[in-house]
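pinned: reference chain
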Amino acid sequence: MSDSPLHQRAQRFLSALRHCQVLGMQVQHAGPAGLTLRLPYSQQIIGNPDTGVIHGGAITTLMDTTCGISTICVLEDFEICPTLDLRIDYMHPAEPHKDVFGFAECYRVTPHVIFTRGYAYQDDPEQPIAHVVGAFMRMGKVAPVQRPRESKA
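pinned: its C-alpha cells
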C-alpha cells in the first residue's frame, strides 16, 4: 500500500461508501495509471453455500466501485461522477476462500463523460475473473443547491 495523495483521496472516497465498509473493501494502489481495490473473502459474499463461491453481485459491486473511484486518478479536483453504464463479462467464478482484486483505469475523459475499463482477478491479473467497461457522468464539483423560484400569482 502507498501513502500518496491519490491513495489518500481514494481511501477517503471508499470510506464514505457504507456498503464498501461493510464488505471490507480496501485501496491497494492508486496512481495515474489506475486504481486497485481489494475485496476480502468473507461469509457475507458467498453466493453458493455448498461450494463457497463468491456471489456475482459482490464482484459487480467491487468493479462498479473500482471504476467509479478510478475517476479520481484523472481529475484534478473531486467531482461527483455517477455510473451511466456498466458492462461486466464474467470469465469464470472466483475461487472460494481467496480475496478478489479489482483494477480500473480511465481511458478517455470528455467534458461530460469518463470512460473506464478494468478487470477482477485473484492470484494473477492475466487470469481475470471478469472484464468491465463503464461510463461515468461528470457533474462537476458539488453543485450548489438551487431554490425554486417563487411564483408571482
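why pinned: The helical segments are 5-15, 18-23, 56-69. The chain has one domain: 5-137.
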